[in-house]
Design brief:
The complex is a heterodimer.
Chain A lengths: L2 E3 L4 E5 L4 E3 L2 E3 L4 E8 L5 E7 L5 E3 L5 E5 L4 E6 L8 E9 L7 E2 L3 E6 L1
Parallel strand pairs in A: 2-12
Antiparallel strand pairs in A: 1-4, 3-9, 5-6, 5-10, 7-8, 8-9, 10-11, 10-12
Chain B lengths: L4 E3 L2 E4 L5 E6 L6 E7 L6 E7 L2 E5 L7 E4 L6 E5 L8 E8 L10 E2 L3 E5 L1
Parallel strand pairs in B: 2-11
Antiparallel strand pairs in B: 1-3, 3-8, 4-5, 4-9, 5-6, 7-8, 9-10, 9-11
Classes of the chains: A mainly beta, B mainly beta.
Chain lengths: 114, 116
């Protein structure tokens, strides 16, 4: 069965500092990986995805993520965090060998302090 | 692109009552998904449609839950005989067919259900 782990419930970072949100996954087939962000009382918004190719993918709002097959990780990064990046971040995986549903991690709350 | 629309935004109901939620996907999107999200948790997959066909259902979807997408456009999710454990945010998402199943999901703002 496919699964996603986000080991940190919350990440605190000062504005202007680099931001990293961790994600590890488990699948039996090829992994297709996604990051979404959720603001209060809103639905999830797509940030970026890894399907194949270059391990470093770039997405919306200056975010990027690095796919590491050996470590089964897909950490989200931003070189310089903004206060407006404060939100709930979800990593998700689709197992290429197990149907079409997207499985989400438990989420990581990011708090960027001025 | 008017986005995915869900109605109502909030629903408070008494235990044992039936409730129905509606989702209008982005008009050109063929796929429609329902997820449930409880406080502090990630969204949990419930079911998904391609056009009017319901192709996958989670084991989370008990027989009290039913979803339809009769004309391949909007969808409804009905919960019969609601229980307090059904209290959650119900999220709808849609995506286009794309080359594979890896088109991003576009989520609505959800329907928050409170069962008293």
């Amino acid at each position: 069965a496919q699964s996603v782990a986000q080991p940190e419930d919350q990440v605190n970072v000062a504005e202007g500092n680099p931001l990293t949100v961790k994600c590890t996954y488990s699948v039996s087939g090829n992994p297709y990986l996604f990051w979404y962000v959720q603001y209060p009382n809103r639905g999830l918004q797509f940030l970026l995805k890894y399907i194949t190719g270059d391990n470093l993918v770039k997405g919306s709002y200056g975010f990027e993520a690095e796919f590491n097959k050996s470590q089964t990780s897909f950490h989200l990064k931003k070189p310089s965090a903004l206060v407006s990046d404060s939100a709930l971040y979800f990593c998700a995986v689709r197992d290429g060998a197990a149907g079409n549903k997207l499985t989400f991690g438990g989420g990581t709350r990011v708090l960027v302090k001025p | 692109d008017t986005g995915v629309s869900q109605d109502p935004r909030h629903k408070i109901t008494k235990r044992g009552q039936n409730v129905t939620f509606r989702c209008d996907p982005i008009s050109e999107h063929n796929r429609l998904y329902w997820y449930r999200q409880t406080l502090g948790q990630g969204p949990e997959f419930l079911t998904y449609f391609q056009n009017e066909a319901q192709l996958e259902k989670s084991r989370l979807l008990s027989d009290r839950f039913s979803a339809e997408r009769p004309k391949g456009s909007f969808s409804t999710l009905e919960i019969q005989r609601t229980e307090q454990g059904d209290s959650a945010m119900y999220l709808c998402a849609s995506s286009d067919l794309g080359v594979s199943y890896n088109s991003p999901l576009h989520f609505g703002n959800g329907t928050r259900l409170t069962v008293t």
